[in-house]
Amino acid sequence: MLSGIGIHSGVEIQIKISPGTPETGIRFFRQGYANTPIPCDARYALSAARATLLEKDGQRIRTPEHLLSALYGLGITCADITMSDEEVPILDGSAKTFTDAFIDAGIEALPCVAIPAIRIPISVQGPHGSTASVFPDTLRRFTYLLHFPNSFVGYQYYSFVWTPEGYITDIAPARTFGFRHEVEALKAQGLALGGSLDNAVVIGEDGYINTTLRFPDELVRHKVLDLIGDMALVGTPFTGHVVGVASGHALHAHLAQEIQKQIVIQ
Ligand SMILES: [Zn+2]
Fold it and tell me: Ligand 1: distance of its center to the CA of 13 in Å?
């Protein structure tokens, strides 16, 4: 059981994670609605400002991406997640609290099964030159290029070959971030109501405002964390090289839908 506030709603949420089955994969439940699971599946992903939204049968889950990243980052492909409200808590803005909790609770190994492989490259385009692509690869690889030309941040690049151990040390602690000038605009739209200096790295004009970074390239590592979480929406791990260039959750969900078509999810 974990609890915390949603970064966008500001609402306090309790969340309980129980073992799932290989047949049902990762599913979300709203408390009191045990008969209407919301699967972790790109076909139920709606585009939402700044976050992923899953919706099925009138039930919705907001901001599942860091929790999904922690699950897939540790190689956990089935779990039942029950939530007291619709938005997954932001905690410290990273995936570390989730990975620590899963490691404490213990993770049960399932019999090994072959995972599908990407055979043909796929690329989808978003606004402002952003792209999300996947290429054949013998490994599970995630690469991101971040570019903020009008900020001191400039370019950051990170490429990660997936292993659970590497995920725990190099990806899970990387926190979400935002520009100071965007924060007021987001709050005016009713977003980031739970955002604070405790759960996001805030980028100012000349430097980071509130924090010592956990990694010099923490921002791009967080984008790799997001990319891993969004690829959980495919519904199965796969071998391939996923590459995001200035991309966000909506474009990643679109790529996940295209990958589903190639590897034929039942
Ligand atoms: Zn994120």
Answer: 18
Domain count for the chain, please give it: 1
What are the catalytic residues? Answer: 249
Distance CA 146, CA 214 (A): 17
Instruction: State residue 245's pLDDT score.
Output: 98
* CATH classification of the domain holding 130: 3.30.1700.10
CA of 56 to the centre of ligand 1 (A): 22
Surrounding residues of ion ligand 1, Cβ less than 5 A: 176, 226
Give distance in angstroms: CA of 222 to centre of ligand 1.
6
pTM attached to this predicted model: 0.93
Alpha helices in the chain (DSSP H): 65-73, 96-105, 164-166, 180-188, 218-231, 249-263
The residue assigned the tokens 């790799």 is 224
- DSSP labels for 242-257? EEEES--HHHHHHHHH
* Structural domain boundaries enclosing 45: 2-263
Q: How far is the CA of 52 from the centre of ligand 1 (A)?
A: 10
Tokens standing for 248? 């966000």
| pLDDT beyond 80 at 191 | no
pLDDT at 41: 94
